[in-house]
Design goal:
The chain is α/β, with parallel strands linked by helices. The chain folds into 2 domains: 10-278 and 442-466, Aldolase class I (TIM Barrel, Alpha-Beta Barrel); 303-425, no CATH class. 30% of the residues lie in helices and 16% in strands. It has helices at 32-40, 71-97, 114-124, 142-149, 160-169, 207-220, 271-277, 303-313, 343-354, 373-384, 417-425, 458-466, and strands spanning 10-12, 15-17, 20-22, 44-48, 102-108, 131-135, 152-157, 181-184, 191-193, 229-232, 253-257, 285-288, 296-300, 315-317, 328-329, 340-341, 359-362, 367-371. It has an 8-stranded parallel sheet with strand order 3-11-10-8-7-6-5-4. The chain has a 3-stranded antiparallel sheet with strand order 9-13-12, with no helix packed on it. Strands 14-18-17 form a 3-stranded antiparallel sheet. α2 runs parallel beside α3 (114-124). The longest helix has 27 residues, at 71-97. It is globular, with a radius of gyration of 23 Å.
Length: 469
């Protein structure tokens, strides 16, 4: 095998590894089999510590159920599941790696109980985990936790500005353990993305200037060029990134692969999900804002996501009293007479009700959305069953600290993310669940490597990537 020109191993965790990182996809979409094999192939495998699977004595996945009566009790159970699952996955991945490559873990800072989970996992996996990647929020305490357990940390950011804030507040105190900085492109990466309010989701920006700016920020703070920036999002063929390798403007560069490892023999996602990846066309992955985290995220635009789009489209603003253009009372979908809307919106509402969307649910933004009776019941049940999987959940109004509430109305335009991700990862309907994917997923259908329904092992995929393809 000939290695792509300019690609060289890096020193990480005391050994040489390829600068190829497996993206850590949460809720059982990345597990020990895929991450251990990635490390065994000489790269950096990433175990997701976001509600990972545990196993019983017979090797079967332990269902994560929450019979407890209160959200706080269910939240405590979720933390226990998360720690036990991630520890099991790390141990198995480490055994598969057999001393090659490295094993990282990935956590979302916006995960419910993130700090307790991270500390619990690191306490029970000492010597097995080389580093922690962490994003989806501003994880200021990541460096402090890494120092306590003497592991590397790799913050995930989408701009130099975000890095500067983290560095100045906390990371400069633990500079020696910051092994790399992951640049996760908001318009290319799958899952939750760090798109700011100043950036237009409809206008993707070239990642090169943004990464160049990130490196300039790192240099200004005294961070060595030998600390790699890991490009995450949209990476497929390394030959397409030739200008990034050995580029003095960018310093050391590594590459993260989140989408391509989904379609491997070791990938734990169900076969139906794998098969669907082969059918995607450009534009089939949608950057949206329906996630209960409040972040933008990217997922396959399947019927589940289209339903959320349609639900938000059936939305009208209202006032509690007649004011401005709100001159008529809403007479469908609501109880009471204190919903004042425009005449045109009342007509829209009547039309939706006639189509079966006869129930209006209030949102935190002084609007109502129209849903069917079945949808209303599902939304209310899911909100009531919340197990606190996020630090702040827009869908259920849960918060994992202080008074345990965001103080806002629960938002029916969103969904229970734990429920749907657990379901799709364990064989649920791929049309009726959230299916995360990066925006380059359409390339499965175009890349000859995957022709004739070929599914590579992780080793075959890494070897292929190393050639530039």
């Amino acid at each position: 095998m000939s290695v792509f020109k300019g690609l060289k191993p890096i020193l990480y965790g005391g050994r040489e590894v390829w600068p190829l990182i497996e993206g850590g996809k949460g809720v059982a979409a990345t597990n020990h089999a895929s991450s251990g094999a990635w490390a065994a192939a000489g790269g950096i495998g990433t175990v997701s510590a976001v509600n990972a699977d545990s196993y019983d004595a017979q090797g079967h996945v332990v269902p994560q159920v929450y019979p407890q009566p209160s959200r706080r009790e269910r939240h405590d159970q979720l933390i226990t599941y998360a720690i036990d699952g991630a520890v099991e996955q790390v141990r198995r991945a480490y055994d598969i790696a057999s001393g090659r490559g490295a094993i990282n873990i990935n956590v979302l800072w916006e995960m419910g109980g993130a700090q307790a989970v991270l500390e619990g996992v690191l306490e029970r996996t000492r010597g097995l985990v080389t580093g922690v990647t962490c994003g989806a929020g501003m994880p200021y305490r990541l460096s402090e936790i890494a120092a306590r357990f003497n592991v590397n940390y790799l913050p995930i950011v989408s701009s130099g500005r975000a890095f500067r804030a983290l560095w100045k507040r906390a990371y400069h105190k633990v500079a020696h353990l910051m092994a790399a900085v992951v640049y996760e492109d908001p318009w290319l990466a799958g899952g939750h993305n760090g798109l700011s309010n100043a950036e237009d989701p409809r206008k993707p920006e070239d990642p090169y200037p943004r990464v160049k700016s990130l490196r300039a920020t790192m240099r200004a703070e005294g961070v060595s060029d030998s600390v790699p920036i890991i490009m995450a999002g949209g990476v497929w063929f390394l030959r397409e990134w030739n200008d990034w390798i050995d580029n003095p403007e960018l310093g050391a560069i590594a590459f993260q692969f989140g989408t391509r490892p989904l379609l491997t023999e070791e990938s734990p996602i169900p076969q139906g999900w794998k098969d669907h990846l082969r059918k995607l066309a450009p534009g089939d992955v949608l950057l949206h804002r329906f996630s209960p985290t409040g972040f933008y995220s990217s997922a396959v635009r399947n019927p589940f996501l289209r339903n959320l789009e349609a639900r938000s489209a059936r939305q009208i603003p209202y006032s509690r009293v007649a004011a401005g253009e709100h001159t008529v009372q809403l007479d469908v979908g609501v109880r009471g007479k204190n919903f004042w809307v425009t005449p045109a919106d009342r007509d829209h509402a009547r039309g939706w009700a006639a189509q079966g969307f006869s129930h209006a649910l209030r949102t935190p933004d002084d609007t109502v959305v129209f849903v069917t009776g079945e949808e209303r019941d599902t939304i209310r049940t899911d909100q009531a069953d919340c197990m606190g999987c996020l630090s702040h959940c827009g869908f259920s109004a849960w918060k994992d600290h202080d008074d345990w509430s965001t103080g806002r109305l629960a938002d029916p335009r969103s969904f229970c993310i734990q429920k749907t991700l657990q379901d799709i990862a364990h064989g649920g309907d791929i049309d009726q669940n959230l299916m995360f994917a990066g925006h380059a997923a359409y390339r499965f259908a175009q890349d000859p490597f995957y022709s004739n329904n070929f599914t590579p092992t992780v080793k075959q995929l890494v070897d292929r990537i190393l050639t530039g393809d």
